[in-house]
Each structure stands twice: as C-alpha cells, then as structure tokens.
Amino acid sequence: MKKFIGITSLTVLLVLVLTGCGLLVPNAVTPTIAPTNTIAAFPTEPVVETEIPLPTAIPPTATPSPTATPSTIAMLSAEVTFDNYSLRSGPGRLFERVNLYTTGEVISIIGREFTNNWVLVKTSDHAIGWMNLVGLKLYGDLFSLPIFKVDDAQILFGHVYLPGRIPATGIVVSMAPSDNDLSESYDTSTTNADGMWALYLPEDSKGNWIIGPNAYTCEVSNAVFPDSEGCTLNGNLPLAQEITLPFATGLAIEFEILPLNP
Hints:
0% helix, SH3 type barrels, five-stranded antiparallel β-sheet, Immunoglobulin-like, globular, mainly beta
C-alpha cells in the first residue's frame, strides 16, 4: 500500500560527492507536486513495435561474457499481476511501449537497474524490454540478478534521508512537467535500502520539471511510526524542486524528511 500526501517544507541539499554507482551529487529549487496515482495506472497511447538491444551488465554485481545473450544469462521467472501491463523500451513510464501483457503472463527476468524499481525482461513472444516490479510476482531472489547499465537515457538520481542522514526506505519520489499534470507524463521511483531513487527519461527529454517525494510505502518504509494504525509518517515530506532538462550529468538531487516538531 502506498500512501500519498501533500508536499510540505523544503530541504535542498547540494552535495558533490561520489556515490557507489559512479555518479556525483546535487541541488535545485522549490514548487510542489500534487499527489499522484500509483505507478499501476496504465496509459492508453498506441503500442510501438520496436527492437531493443540488450544493455550491458555492470560488474562486479555480475559479469556476463561479452557474447552473453538472454539464453546464456541466469534468469528468474515472474508473473504479470495486472492486465494491459506495459513492456517499455527503457526503465521508465516515459519510454515507448513495446507491447502489453495480461494477468498471468509468465516472463523471464534477465536483470535489474540499480535501484530495483525496474527489471529487464524477456517475454514469451521473445520481446526484450523493461517492466516495473510493482506489477510482477517474482519467483526467486531479485538480488541474484545482474545490474544493467542503462544507456541512451537521462538519469536523475539521489537519496531521501531521515534526520541524521539515515537512508529513508520506501519513499516515493515523483516527477512531472511543470506545465503538464497529465498522468501520461509523470513517473515515480521508490527509494531502496540505501535511501536511493533513480528516474530514467528518454535522451531527448527537455523543459522544466518538478520532482520530489510525495508518497511512501507503508509495508517497507522505515519512516513510518512502528505499529502505527493508519500508516503514519514519522516526519514531514520536503518540498519538491524544479529542475530543467537536460539535467547536468552526475549531479544528484537530495531530500531530507523533516521532523514533526522541529
């Protein structure tokens, strides 16, 4: 269950440090993002037939041989849990849709991106692309799969912290164009065990966008009061930031949850 709340007070941290994925760290400005629907909402744009090259795995998580193909990489099985679930050409809602799949469709998972929101899959009709994990029932250990580097994309990333620079897990970071609040144009990423999020956009994405935490996942977030009825956040979400795309490569955008009683 994801809980969506309005965005309140702003904390912007501009940090220029190396992160574990070889990127540097961030900054930005103000506005607010209105609460959005969960990522399981599906758009209605026409299906785009396209071939997708298999990305490159990032060592040392896994090092497939240079000639590795989906048939030679260890894969996990997963089942689609929504009807009309999208396979996309990149790990984000703004990438072209390759095809749609129905509940019960069995797919093979080849790998993942580094925040574990999206997985690279091969379908029964031999298409290769990316699916969001929210609509998949996974059989096996996700962390046994290699992390794949995503080329041909703009990558926005950063962390959400609890007070004291403690990584905040299960926090949903959303982004949408400043001048367009249509559900087709937004995307979300949920922070992992390191408090890290990442959003991937097509290389030609541009313009002014608003980005910031606006929801949290009750089941996995360490920012929720333990055993609280109604899944209450122990703090206030920071304000969103306005950024301009294309964004500076290697800069991360950091957020910190504010205490309830500062």
